[in-house]
Amino acid sequence: MSDPQYIAVGAEWCGYSKKQEAELAKLGDRKADNVSMIMCQGKDDSLSEADKAVCEKALPQLSGFPTWFKKEGDTVAPITKQVTQQQGLHFLQESQLCEALPGACKAE
């Protein structure tokens, strides 16, 4: 079985989604191939069929933009964290990405 994929699901119109995209870009070459971001709202015409399938599964499970999901095989599930109650994992700064998403960063 292959490594899980970590996908941030965002919206083109959402400021936090754009910030998340910028934080991912800061990782540069350290970002593993299994980490990506999909703008599920606002770019529908430019999404691949695979990305559209992820969006169809992810959008009903969103707790806000962006929300991080873990994809294993055909299963797409939100990554959750405990705060005062279980909630979706949202915006991550560059410094948090490697720790929060195991395998998301290449070893230096």
CA distance, first residue to last residue: 24 Å
Can you tell me the overall shape?
Answer: globular
Average per-residue pLDDT, rounded, comes to 85
Query: Pairing-aware structural class of the strands and helices?
Result: alpha+beta
Question: What is the count of structural domains?
Answer: 1
**N to C succession of SSEs:** EHEHEEEEH
Percent of residues in beta strands: 25-35%
Radius of gyration computed on alpha carbons = 13 Å
CATH topology: Glutaredoxin
Poorly predicted residue ranges: none
Sequence of strands across the biggest β-sheet? 2-1-3-4
- Under the CATH scheme, which architecture would be assigned? 3-Layer(aba) Sandwich
Name of the CATH first level: Alpha Beta
Main sheet characteristics: 4 strands, mixed
Q: Helices, strands, pairings?
A:
Blueprint: E1 5-11, H1 15-27, E2 35-41, H2 49-58, E3 67-72, E4 75-78, E5 80-82, E6 86-88, H3 94-100
Structural features, described:
The protein has a single domain, classed as Glutaredoxin, CATH 3.40.30. The chain is globular, with a radius of gyration of 13 Å. The relative contact order is 0.25. 28% of the residues lie in helices and 28% in strands. The two termini are 24 Å apart. With 108 residues, it is α+β, with helices and mostly antiparallel strands. The strands form two sheets. A four-stranded mixed β-sheet has the order 2-1-3-4, with helices on both faces. The chain has a two-stranded antiparallel ribbon with strand order 5-6. The mean pLDDT is 85. α1 (15-27) links the parallel β1 (5-11) and β2. It has three helices and six strands. The protein has helices spanning 15-27, 49-58, 94-100; strands at 5-11, 35-41, 67-72, 75-78, 80-82, 86-88. The longest helix is centred in the first third of the chain and has 13 residues, at 15-27.
